Amino acid sequence: MTAGPPHHYPPPGAPPPEDPPASIAPAPPGAPYAPAQAPAVPRTAQGWQHLGGAFHRPGAIPLRPLTLGSMYDGAFRIIRYNPKATVGAAVLVTAVAMLIPVIVTVLVTFVGGVTVDLTAESSSEDLSTGEAVGLLSAYGSLIFSSVLSWIGLTLVTAMMTKVVHAAAVGRKLTLDQAWASTRGKRWRALGLAALVSLTLLVIWAGWGLLLALVIIATESVLASVLWGIASFLGCAALMVWSWIKLFYLPVPALILEDVGVFGAIGRGRRLTERQFWRTFGIALLTYLIGTFAGGLLSAPVSIAAQVLVFVFPEQSLLVLFVGQSIASVVQNAFVAPFLAAVTTLQYVDLRMRKEAYDVELMREAGLLPQ
Predict the structure, then answer these.
(1) Among 24, 36, 125, 314, which residue's CB has the most CB atoms within a 10 Å radius?
(2) Percent of the chain with pLDDT over 70
(3) Pairwise CA distance, residues 316 & 30, whole Å
C-alpha cells in the first residue's frame, strides 16, 4: 500500500487559504506543509501566544487546550480524512476475527450435516450428540474469535494513537505506516490491556466473594441486601477510579512516549491529577455516544438476522452467527476508531494544559524553529 499525497485537515466552512507570509518559503512539490520558517513567537507567563490562522491549526486539531467540541470535531475529522487507517483497520481486524465462527458453523452445518433449529422449543436433553457437538464447536469458536478480536482492537487502538498524533501536526499516515509505527510497542500494549482486564476481573471477583461470605455469615436478609448495595457502589467507585487514574490514558502514553507498562500507568495517573472529573465526564460521554451510535448502526443487521432465523430454521445457527459477525464489523468500524481518537485527544489536551505540549507539536509541524 503506497501513500498518496498528504491531505490537509481544513476546518469546515473555512475560507480559501491566504497566501503565506513572505517570511515563509513555498513548500516544495509533494511536501505536506511549508517548511519551518515561522516568525519569532513571544512567550508570556501563560505560555506561547496564539498565532492564529494556519499557525494554530496545522492539522486536525487546534494546537491549544481542547474543548469537548474540539475533541469530537478532531476525532470525526481524522476518521473522515483518513478512513483507511482508522475505519479500515477496525473493519479488517473485526472481519478476520468474526470469520472464524462463521467458517466453523458452515463446516458444522454443510459438511458435518448438523442442523440446529433455534426457533424450536426444546431442552438440552432433546439435543442429539451431533447437535450438541455442533453447538459447542460454534460457540467455542465464537469465544475464540472474541479473544482474537480483543487482541486486534487493542492493536488498532495503538495504531490510532499514532494516526491521531500525526494528524495533530498535519501528517496523514497510511495503514502500513500506522502499523509500522507501533513496532516495539505492540506486546507492551497487549500486556497493558491484559493487566487492565485482570485488574477489573479481580475487583469484581473480590466483591462477589466478599458478598457471598456476608450472605453466609449473616441471617438477616435486610443486612445482606444493604451490604450488597453499599459494597456494589463502593466497588463501582473503585472501578471508575482505577479506570480513569490508572488505565484510561496509559495507552497513548505507552505508544507516544519512551516508557514501559508501569511507566505509562504512572504517566496517566499524573496527567489526571486535578483533572479527574473532567476526564471521567468526557470519557463516560464518549463511551455512551459510541455505544448508542454503534447500536444504531448494527441494529438493522441484527434485526434482519433475527427475522431470517425464522425463514431458514434449519440453518438458524449459521444465519445467527453471520448476522452477529456483520453487526460486529459494522459497530466496530465506528466505535473503535472514535473511542481511540477521543482518548488520544484527551491525552494531548492534558499534556498541552500541563506540559506546554502544544509548543512541541508546533515544532514538530514546522511552525516553530527547532
Answers:
(1) 24
(2) 79
(3) 54
